[in-house]
Amino acid sequence: MDKGNEAAVAALEARNWRVDFNENGGTFLEWYSPAGEDYCIESESNDLLRIFEQEREFFDVDEHVELWAESRGKRGVPDSYAVLLDDAKAIEKELEECEREVRNALSLQGK
User: Fold this and answer.
1) How far, in Å, CA of 88 to CA of 33, rounded?
2) Mean pLDDT, to the nearest integer, of 31-49?
3) CA distances (Å), 2 to each of 7, 8, 16, 85, in order?
4) Are 30 and 42 in contact (CB under 8 A)?
5) What distance in Å separates the CA atoms of residue 58 and residue 54, rounded to the nearest whole number?
6) Residue range 51-104, pLDDT digits in tens
7) Among 59, 64, 102, 111, which residue's beta carbon has the most beta carbons within 10 A?
8) Left (φ > 0), alpha (ψ -120 to 50) or beta: where does 16 sit?
9) How far apart are CA 47 and CA 66, in angstroms?
10) How far is it, in rounded angstroms, from Cα 23 to Cα 93?
11) What is d(CA 15, CA 94) in angstroms, rounded to the nearest whole number?
12) Residue 107 has what pLDDT?
């Protein structure tokens, strides 16, 4: 792993993300949201900046709440729409902050 990716991985791990690169050049990322959602990102790429740019770009708070709405109060899903909404907003903010931190880590390494 190059130094830019090492710095980016260190920044993500400091934010409690698990980062696994596979032998085929893909990446698996995992993080637990404030409400306990096991938020995972799987990518065929190992370009961490691109992964977070795309995830942030396509993440939609309303769609995320809708995804969990029918499961409210079951299997560990919070029963409150307010909690689901706050958690989705926290995920969106986390994605934005991770994108910024990965960009900063790579720019410090001259990438």
Assistant:
1) 8
2) 96
3) 9, 10, 21, 38
4) no
5) 6
6) 999 999 999 999 999 999 999 999 999 999 999 999 999 999 999 999 999 999
7) 102
8) left
9) 29
10) 30
11) 9
12) 87
Q: Is residue 44 within 8 Å of residue 23, measured between CB atoms?
A: no
What tokens were used for 52? 């977070």
Q: How far apart are CA 31 and CA 10, in angstroms?
A: 14
Closest alpha carbon to 76 in 31, 39, 36: 36
For the whole model, what pTM was predicted? Answer: 0.92
For the chain, what percent of residues have pLDDT higher than 70?
94
- Tokens at 3, concatenated: 């130094």
pLDDT for 4 equals 58
End-to-end CA, the chain: 13
Please answer whether residues 3 and 97 qualify as being in contact, where contact means their C-beta atoms are separated by less than 8 angstroms: no
Structure tokens given for 20: 């696994």
Q: Which of 4, 1, 2 is nearest to 111 (CA)?
A: 4
Q: Which two tokens stand for residue 63?
A: 């769609």
Q: Letter for the amino acid at 45? A: S
